[in-house]
Specification:
With about 425 residues, the protein is an alpha/beta fold. It has helices spanning about 15-20, 35-40, 50-60, 95-105, 125-135, 175-185, 200-230, 235-240, 260-270, 280-290, 290-305, 335-340, 355-365; strands at about 5, 25-30, 65, 75-80, 110-115, 145-150, 165-170, 190-195, 315, 345-350, 380, 400, 410. It has two domains: about 5-205, NAD(P)-binding Rossmann-like Domain (Rossmann fold), CATH 3.40.50.720; about 230-410, Rossmann fold, CATH 3.40.50.720. The strands form three sheets. Strands 3-2-1-4-5-6 form a six-stranded parallel β-sheet, sandwiched between helices. The protein has a five-stranded parallel β-sheet with strand order 10-9-11-12-13, with helices on one face. The termini are far apart.
Length: about 425
């Protein structure tokens, strides 16, 4: 039986380890000892897997560890580490390079390294392969081989899980591509799509999220225009949605570790090659500016309702980057929070899914555990968590529904 190493046990790696464990021996490696300990206790704090699913993987003899020595037992390595950006919106490839270095130490003849992390086209062969060659002393496409199969995990989505989403696969040679295709086909019930090259697979992944980013930016810009016109954006979208080929997107905050990050990988590579990607950058600029725009809308709402802009009590509901998910990475809710703080010091945030310790460490903000909503003059529903859909508000309370999740609101984006 093949032994597969999954490098990185986050939102992508853990579901993949669980899926592969049903048919293969799996070694799940992560540098975070706390993460490994919780998994070995049958608990996943990302909520991607239930306790029973983590237990199932363990019963299938999946090993979750921080000890690299177990990697020597494997012949297939799948790297699923994060690919964030730095403060200048440049790709931070350190996790990817470190993972490649780790794997390089254990590579043997005919081993295969598959990357799932989102990168710019060319990164696997231009950045990762040279590291693997240098550390292992082996020759690419002679002694070892590579592939790329972009992750398509949708955090918080219990319907479109890893085995139910069609998987794009690729390999560094036709023979290896076929082996990788067969490997994923054995667990992906939705089927696979064999791309003609690693670069094509990398490019396909990067445009998936870039396309969404641009489309949301367009709707966000429409929301700004319609607000000036005094038109409700949700009503406009509902009317437009009646046309069969209308592409349905909603306005809102665009954060997280995918849509709010991945386009910068493409613009980085494009700029290196001498082409300025104007549309992509314009979309990023619009989406990154929404925190300031929403704060200004709140300021205007307070004034229109004869409430003090500086002393009114304001509550923001939701701190994660998306609905029904505990992930706070690159959450744009905190952009809204900081902007409101510039004119009102009585603003607080609550989120029943986010980890208060993580929020305090990452954003230096203390989350409210169970706020009494009726005690606030203004409530901003920033994230469409399920529990926020049927809230009771007091009369004359100012409500700003960013995601248009409430049945009745006084204002929305």
């Amino acid at each position: 039986m093949k032994k597969i190493a999954i490098i990185g046990l986050g939102y992508v790696g853990l579901p993949l380890a669980h899926a592969f464990s049903s048919k293969y021996k799996v070694i799940g490696f992560d540098i975070n000892s706390s993460r490994v300990n919780e998994l070995n206790s049958s608990y996943d704090n990302t909520n991607e897997l239930s306790d029973s699913q983590v237990s199932e993987a363990l019963k299938n003899d999946a090993l979750f560890t921080t000890n690299t020595k177990y990697l020597s037992e494997c012949s297939i390595y799948i790297i699923t580490v994060p690919t964030p950006i730095d403060k200048k919106n440049q790709p931070n490839l350190k996790p990817l390079k470190n993972a490649s270095t780790t794997v390089g130490k254990y590579l043997n003849l005919n081993d295969i390294v598959i990357y799932e992390s989102t990168v710019f086209p060319g990164a696997t062969e231009e950045v990762c392969v040279p590291i693997l060659e240098e550390i292992s002393g082996l020759k690419f496409n002679r002694d070892f081989f590579c592939g790329y199969s972009p992750e398509r995990i949708n955090p918080g989505d219990k319907k479109h899980t890893v085995t139910k989403i069609k998987k794009v696969v690729s390999g560094s040679t036709p023979k290896v591509a076929k082996i990788i295709d067969e490997l994923y086909s054995s667990i992906i019930t939705a089927g696979t799509y064999l791309a003609p090259s690693i670069k094509v697979a990398e490019a396909a992944k990067i445009i998936e999220n870039t396309q969404r980013d641009i489309n949301i930016a367009f709707i966000n810009e429409l929301a700004i225009i319609f607000e000036i016109m005094g038109i409700d954006t949700s009503s406009v979208l509902a009317a437009a949605r009646t046309k069969w080929n209308f592409i349905d997107f909603k306005p809102g905050l665009v954060g997280g570790h995918c849509i709010g990050v991945d386009p910068y990988y493409l613009t980085y590579k494009s700029n290196l090659l001498g082409y300025k990607p104007n549309m992509i950058l314009a979309g990023r600029e619009i989406n990154d500016s929404m925190g300031k725009y929403i704060a200004l809308r709140v300021q205007k709402m307070l004034k229109n309702n004869s409430l003090s802009q500086s002393d009114s009590r304001i509550l923001i509901l939701g701190a994660t980057f998306k609905e029904n998910c505990p992930d706070i990475r690159n959450s744009k809710v905190f952009d809204v929070y900081k902007q409101i703080l510039s004119f009102n010091k009585n603003v607080e945030i609550s989120d029943y899914l986010a980890d208060p310790k993580e929020v305090r460490m990452e954003y230096n903000v203390t989350l409210l555990k169970e706020p009494i909503i009726q005690n606030y003059d203004c409530v901003i529903v920033a994230v469409a968590h399920e529990k926020y859909r049927n809230l009771n508000f007091k009369e004359n309370q100012v409500i700003f529904d960013i995601k248009s999740v409430l049945k009745k609101t006084t204002d929305r984006l």
